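Here is one chain, start to finish.
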Amino acid sequence: MSKRPNIILILSDQHNAKVLGYKGHPDVKTPNLDRMASEGVSFENAITQNPICTPSRVCYFSGQYVHNHGYYGLSGPNPRGLPNLFGHFRKAGYRTSAIGKIHCPEYWIEDDTDLFHETCNCSIGGRSAEYESFLKKRGKLELEDHISLPEFGDRGLQSMEGRPSPLSFEESQEGWAVNRTIQFIEECVNDGIPFFSHISLPRPHQCTSPCKEFWDLYEGKELTLPPNADYPMEGKSPLMIGNAKWWRTGNWALLEPKTFEAARLRKLRGYLGAVSQVDHAVGLILDYIRKKNIANNTIVIYASDHGDYATEH
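Its structure:
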């Protein structure tokens, strides 16, 4: 590379590292991530620093362990003064952006970005106005993926039950974030300024609700259920017994027959579809930088904040 490289950091939410085509998963379709792995470097020994979204992301952006930055859960101490990647690259003359499900204290990094958009309403500070306006104009704000839908009753917000999203890919957080990121990159290329662009994709975190085209990828497929500890509960703690009963006999609103195996299969279908949706978003970014002839001077990193059992236990 003859000049400072551009950097694109793509984070997904809760992507199990085994659920990738190139890792030998029997069912999932991830052609773009497989292509990245074949053309680049795969860090097989990398581990998350925390199994919860926000602490892991603060680790990514600060370069510090949890016991140093103090975020052990979804909230923590005021991180002002804590260094972050965006400020580091900005000082080096880069233009910076953070778009998507950022899911860490926005005020900590927003001042160090030239463009900032949070698409997830569950994040600290809530969803940015631009994505909310985008959905409102289409009359689809109430259909956004992490909003409770009536068919789930009081289980809707974090339902594990797979279902297709009522939104198109373009309307999804992934689709909107990709389009806005591409606009940002286009402006940087036209201005001749190197960029550090972070795009954060909310899937495959539950709800396991891929857009219909990715849900349909697994229509009629005989999916491979991973091992599950479906063992007797005799002698276990009341809490464990209660949790097991909740999972096995839960109010699976969309399920027929209402069995634990059927629930796992529907959850798995939704999870695989969501991973394929993330893969599609990654492919759009890769195709764009190739089209703009900047791929040879752009470092693209894909990672996830932490994993998911993906019906295995």
